[in-house]
Amino acid sequence: MRLPAPPRPRFLRPAPPRPGRNGANGRNAAPETQKPTAKDTAVEGAASAIGWLDERTGATPFVRYMLYRKVPKGVNWFYTLGSATLFAFLSQAVTGVFLAMYYEPDPTRAYESASRITNEVFLGELVRGMHRWGATVMIVLIFLHMGRTFFFGAYKYPRELNWVIGVVLLVLTLAMGLTGYLLPFDQRSFWATVVAVNINASGPIVGPYLADFLRAGAEFGPTTIARFYALHMLAIPGLIAALIGAHLYLVVKLGVTAPPWLKAEKKDLLREEI
Amino acid sequence: MNAREREQYLREYSILKNQGKPFLYSVAKDSVMACITLGVIILMAVLFGAELGPKADPTTTTYTPRPEWYFFFLFELLRVVKPPSLVFLATVGIPTICLVLLLLLPFFDRGPERNPLRRPIAVTAGIATIAAMAYLTVLGALAGAPSEIELATAPQFERGKEVTASAGCLACHKIGENGGTLGPSLTHIGDRLGRDAIARTLVNPTPPMPSYQAYRTQNPKQFNELVNYVASLKGEN
């Protein structure tokens, strides 16, 4: 004889059997479903995490579009030069962060801190070397990328604006080379920068003002190096990153150019018209 | 490009694009290229290192500056243009004009043709620009610092001319067409000062000129050659 179960609050009551599962009385019971494996749990977890993100950002269609957008046929190795330039920029950013941890933008300590990075800090010379030669690699890649764009006629309609952004990026990268050259503060970098700023000063109208701005005065003074440092690691890289964003947006929006020797076949063009 | 050509390009491009593969496939190539880039950067860092010269000293005037190699072409342009009235052309004029032309390229080169084989003018101009920049860069790399004296010299002073060129005099003094204008020109200095007077001035100069006393004790032979050469600079030979 069974006693009737005492009334229980809702949250302590057992869940009612789901339809399709084995019934409450045990008869007509379907076979016990398998326990989810670790893999199933992981997949489910990832899916729900992505679902969570997607519900809040709506990023999935965007990412899917990015990855599955078509790239014209015939795309070859020349088309990797742009992304390689971006990668060189990222490498410069990472090595630059590590250099900034040890570098002191002060005329009395700049050289000493650069020499400490080179001679004492663990892997310091490697990181400084990577930053120094990374600049060379980035400049070379930019010019190659630009050459590809020029000879493939990729700057023409509808990508004119992207070419303009690219040229501005080239100028900013050269400005990075100029402002970074002073920072080790050895004889070579100091005198080359003096000459470069004097060249700036010889320009018409804005030249002298630009030179005064760069030097933080009429002559190289104690704050010049801090100014170059701020330009080199905050202002110019920020601009470059923003413009790279615009550059990439336009690449995705307008599509990668097809190699100029490829032409659509007549029958495809006709079909398109119908 | 007129409206019809633009329309035609967009249509043709959309067909070629649809025949291509998803971007996901090119990620592999891009990744390989990124690895090569990183490899080259590390290799260059290991092979060439990061040299650090002597500390910057704003009081020295003997140091002849030298920019990073990718500015050599600008630097060389400066050396090619000699007359002082035209220097602004080399420093700012020509580079600015070239930059504006480069920036506005898509706005004046508006033809519909993209194949480089059928764009003779654009491709010729492009190759000529690259060749000019490469030529100037190589010149800059070979010439070294701007410490060259182009004045003709008697053969016995040839060695002294080289010493003078590398001793930093040109940072302030003009010899012939080369050199700065901070100090007095040395082109005819032999008319005014004798050999001994020049040596005395070098060792015990009027500020802001730096003293060559240390130079004399370290390199007595070069010092002599330098003095002989400078003393030989006369107006009427």
Characterize this entry briefly.
The complex is a heterodimer of chains A (274) and B (237). Chain A is mostly helical.
Major sheet details of chain A: none
The biggest chain-chain interface is:
A-B, 87 and 81 residues
The ordered string of helix (H) and strand (E) elements of chain A is: HHEHHHHHHHH
Question: Please, what is the oligomeric state?
Answer: heterodimer
Mean pLDDT of chain B: 82
**What percentage of residues of chain B falls in helices of 4 or more residues?**
55-70%
* CATH topology title of the largest domain in chain B: Helix Hairpins
Flag low-confidence runs of chain B: none
Secondary-structure element pattern of chain B, one letter each: HEHHHHHHEEHHHH
How far apart are the first and last residues' alpha carbons of chain B, in Å? 66 Å
Mind explaining what this structure looks like?
The complex is a heterodimer of chains A (274) and B (237). Chain A has helices at residues 38-57, 60-68, 81-102, 110-119, 124-151, 160-182, 187-201, 207-215, 224-254, 266-273; one strand at residues 70-71. The N and C termini of chain A lie far apart (82 Å). Chain A has 10 helices and 1 strand, in the order ααβαααααααα. Chain B has 3 domains: 1-53, no CATH class; 62-145, Orthogonal Bundle (Helix Hairpins); 155-231, Cytochrome Bc1 Complex, Chain D, domain 2. Chain B is built from 11 helices and 3 strands, in the order H-E-H-H-H-H-H-H-E-E-H-H-H-H. Chain B has a two-stranded antiparallel sheet with strand order 2-3. Chain B starts with a helix and ends in a 6-residue tail after the last helix. In chain B, 21% of the residues are buried. At the A-B interface, helix 2, strand 1, helix 3, helix 4 and helix 5 of A face helix 1, strand 1, helix 2, helix 4 and helix 5 of B. Strand 1 (70-71) of chain A pairs antiparallel with strand 1 of chain B, so a sheet runs across the interface.
